[in-house]
Amino acid sequence: MSERIEDLFDRCVDHLVSGDDMSACVADASDLAEMLSPLLLTSELVARQLKTVEPSPRFRLAARTRMRSLFFARLARKESGTSFLSLWWQRRWANAMATAMVVCLAGLGVLAASFNALPSGFFYPVKVTTEEMRLALTTSDYERAQLRLEYAERRLTEMTSMADKGDTEMAVLLAGEVTRLVVQLATSTVFNLSDAGGGQVVVLPDSPAATLAPIAVLSADRAEALALLESVLQSAPEGLRPDVERLMNELSREFDTTISYLETKTAS
Amino acid sequence: MSDEQQLVARAAQGDVDAFSKLYEENFDRVYRYLYVRLGNEAESEDLTQEVFAKVLEVIGSFQWRDVPFASWLFRIAHNKMIDHIRREKRVERVDSDETVLSLDDPDPADVAEHNLQIERVRHNIGKLSPAQREVIWLRFGAGLTTTEVANALGKSTGTVKALQYNGIVALRKLMELI
After folding, report:
1. How far is A51 from chain B (nearest CA, A)?
2. Is the pLDDT of residue B129 over 80?
3. CA-nearest residue of chain A to B13?
4. Which of A65, A203, B69, B146 lies most in the core, judged by the most C-beta atoms within 10 Å?
């Protein structure tokens, strides 16, 4: 009896989890239906409540962008054989160290020295952490938008430099960072774009060869970021329009340059 | 080879469409599983990304051995969460100040009421035994099948069914006390 009621209850939960009507599961077990009824009500309540928990559109889109960057960075890294995740984890540790360094070295000129640092440089984590701290300390959405526009431009310059140095993986990751910043920008209340989080995941031309994939993802990032910036521009406050337009121009130019570097590398 | 096996095999070989499909199919439920356990939006978001980054790193070594992909995925999610809790050295939180609800009507009063209801459910699930809690989270939060839960936890399906049944019985009593 005990085992049977657990099996029957499990079948009912199957119905519940897949969104079907639960009454059918007890139709052929009328002797147990009365006993199960209150438990099914509780199960329904629990399932209904938990189902309402969903990731925010902002996070969903940002996570897709990051995942896409990681995916293609992994493909790019396959040839060199080093774990692409080392960058991810190195950065986590580097950020913690950099926070301590920012606190200790503020005033010694190191922050200024880190301004032009590239991702391969020792002071790069200081640069990124300083940016994050500035964002965290900024309370105005308008000023945050200004900072993100500025940071996106920096990432673009770094992306081109890294591609020029032959570091395809880092270039792809930086392209993802640019898109992430643009997504964050587009979801800012300053622009009031309610549908900015509804984009599709990876939309890429057919390019199964791993060597072509970075170029494909850069093209997709370029198109996605530009489309978002078009929307941002249309609803941007007057004071931010020149910055948005400048970023759009920079974005087109830097992505084109980066893609051309990678094409040259692929051809050779 | 089943459709899912083919999908995983393609994803492991670097097929972006296959990986995207696995990602889209599982993203929400991994997030929901983590959020229901942690009750914190920012932490759940970070861990969700870490889970999928880990999946991407090790999917090439995934072997079927009759273990469904979802069981493998949620083992990773479970381990990430345990690592996180140990790292934070804290008791699992039962309250939250974050909002992650998908409501059509964003009326603040409705959102607050809804949050409260979810927190009540989370709070009561938190009072179950660890094994019952895990089964309820995976079954009702992540929507896994009994077989997937059993494989994820390394238990028999019979044990999972018993834990599920007894967990809901206990939960009903706890909710009646409110």
Report:
1. 7
2. yes
3. A75
4. A65
Task: Using alpha carbons, select from A179, A181, A171 the residue that is nearest to residue A214.
Answer: A171
Whole-angstrom distance, CA of residue A22 vs CA of residue A17 = 10
B111 vs B139, residue with greater confidence: B139
Q: Grade residue A96 by pLDDT with cuts at 50, 70 and 90.
A: low
Q: Residues of A with CB below 8 A from B15's CB?
A: 208
Question: Looking at beta carbons, which residues of chain A come within 8 Å of B164?
Answer: 6, 9-10, 13
Range of the domain at A106: 57-267
Model-level pTM greater than 0.80?
no
B166: its two tokens = 């007894």
- CB of A221 closer than 8 Å to CB of A265: no
Q: Report the run of H or E that residue A39 belongs to, with start and end.
A: helix A30-51
Q: Which residues of chain B make contact with A47, given a CB cutoff of 8 A? A: 140
CATH class of B105-178: mainly alpha
pLDDT at A50 over 80: yes
Q: Are residues A35 and A93 in the same domain?
A: no
Q: What is the number of domains present in chain A?
A: 2
Q: Per mean pLDDT, which of A26-30, A188-192, B14-18, B70-74 is the most reliable?
A: B70-74
Domain B1-93 of CATH type 1.10.1740.10: yes
Decide if B16 and A71 are in contact by the 8 Å CB cutoff.
yes
Neighbour count for residue A6 (Cβ, 10 Å): 17
Q: Both A102 and A201 in a single domain?
A: yes
C-beta atoms surrounding A178 within 10 Å: 29
Q: Cβ B102–A52 below 8 Å, yes or no? A: yes
Q: B88-122 pLDDT, tens per residue?
A: 765 444 333 333 334 344 555 666 666 677 788 88
**Same-domain status, A95 and A7:** no
Residue B101 sits at φ, ψ, to 5 deg, of -95, 145
A219 and A149, same structural domain? yes
Q: Are residues A153 and A219 in the same domain?
A: yes
Query: What is the domain partition of chain B in residue ranges?
Result: 1-93, 105-178
How far apart are the two ends of chain A, measured CA to CA in Å?
Answer: 73
Look at residue A172 and tell me whether its pLDDT is greater than 90: no
